[in-house]
Write a structure and sequence with these properties.
Helix content is 26%, strand content 28%. It is built from seven helices and 16 strands. The strands form two sheets. The chain has a seven-stranded antiparallel β-sheet. It has a six-stranded mixed β-barrel with strand order 7-8-9-10-13-14. Strand 10 and strand 11 form a beta hairpin.
Length: 295
């Protein structure tokens, strides 16, 4: 079997040799950010938006990342792992680098940040398409929700609780118990023929796919309402859906074991999915920018 190659601080190495410092601040205190992108045939939808969000989140934590280097790293990882096929999920992780043990908490960084880029198959060969999502409301909130941080414990605990109750996805709520977003995806619902999704100011990640969904909604004849859904409103919605770079648009067919709509993927979700898939196909950005012709 061909070994997966991993990009670590500018070098491609076989995965069993891919290591970072034991003093890494990402390891010690979760000081890091990440991005997850889907790459098909060397192109990725809204690659620049993902790199911008990575850079902004890193900047908030005082981590300096160079988007051009990361872009080159993504291209290198995808090419080095062509045995995975032409539809892969790429994860970019940037942490604050090794800790200087001579300084008190929270310490200052020594040296450059740590950057790790990996690629994996989107779905195992021959695996059936991803089934619709089944949600479970979990009364937990992410810390600093606007940052796509590697401090992922809350999402993990929420997701385990959801799975233990037979659901596929935890749906995190605001302090008033209103559903905001899933542990790894944004949430939207069709209510009275409108597409309702929580505003970023409510404490959700500004999902790249969510932004694109709101853009295509008008073309699908839908008015977008950015406001927080009430719990009962979600349960009584005509349809509901989750979005992320990996899933695209995924129908959400039940919440807390109660069917949304008629408990199956609905026509509005199907239209949104088809429209977004077409946009992704038409506008996905190449990993490697072609150089202008000489002369
Ligand atoms: C908490 C959370 N919300 C939303 C998303 C979806 O964001 P995007 O569409 O940019 O992948 C993610 C993706 O991982 C996430 O972790």
């Amino acid at each position: 079997m061909t070994e997966t190659m991993v990009w670590v601080d500018g070098r491609l190495v076989p995965s069993h040799l891919a290591t970072v410092s034991a003093l890494d601040r990402g390891l010690r205190s979760g000081e890091g950010v990440y991005e997850t992108l889907r790459v098909r045939e060397q192109r990725s939808f809204r690659l620049v938006a993902h790199l911008d969000r990575l850079q902004a989140g890193a900047g908030t934590l005082g981590i300096r990342v160079d988007p051009a280097t990361i872009r080159a790293g993504i291209a290198a990882v995808v090419t080095a792992n062509d045995h995975l096929g032409d539809d892969v999920v790429v994860r970019v992780t940037c942490t604050a680098g090794p800790m200087d043990l001579t300084t008190p908490f929270p310490g200052t960084g020594v040296g450059p940040p740590t950057v790790v880029i990996t690629a994996q198959r989107t779905r195992a060969p021959g695996a059936p398409p991803r089934p619709p999502a089944r949600g479970r409301l979990v009364d937990l909130r992410r810390e600093l929700p606007m940052i796509k941080s590697t401090a992922y414990l809350l999402s993990l605990v929420a997701q385990r609780e959801a799975r233990a109750h037979g659901a596929s996805d935890a749906i995190l709520c605001d302090p008033a118990g209103r559903p905001l977003e899933a542990a790894t995806a944004n949430l939207a619902a069709v209510v009275d023929g409108r597409l309702v999704t929580a505003p970023v100011s409510a404490g959700i990640l500004a999902g790249v796919t969510r932004t694109a969904l709101c853009e295509v909604a008008a073309g699908c004849g839908l008015v977008v309402e950015e406001r927080t859904l009430e719990r009962e409103e979600l349960l009584a919605a005509e349809e509901a859906l989750l979005t992320s770079a990996v899933r695209g648009v995924q129908p959400l067919v039940s919440v807390d074991a109660r069917a949304i709509g008629d408990g199956a993927a609905g026509p509005v979700t199907a239209r949104l999915r088809a429209t977004l898939d077409a946009l992704i196909d038409a506008t996905a950005e190449p990993l490697v920018l072609s150089r202008p012709a000489d002369g």
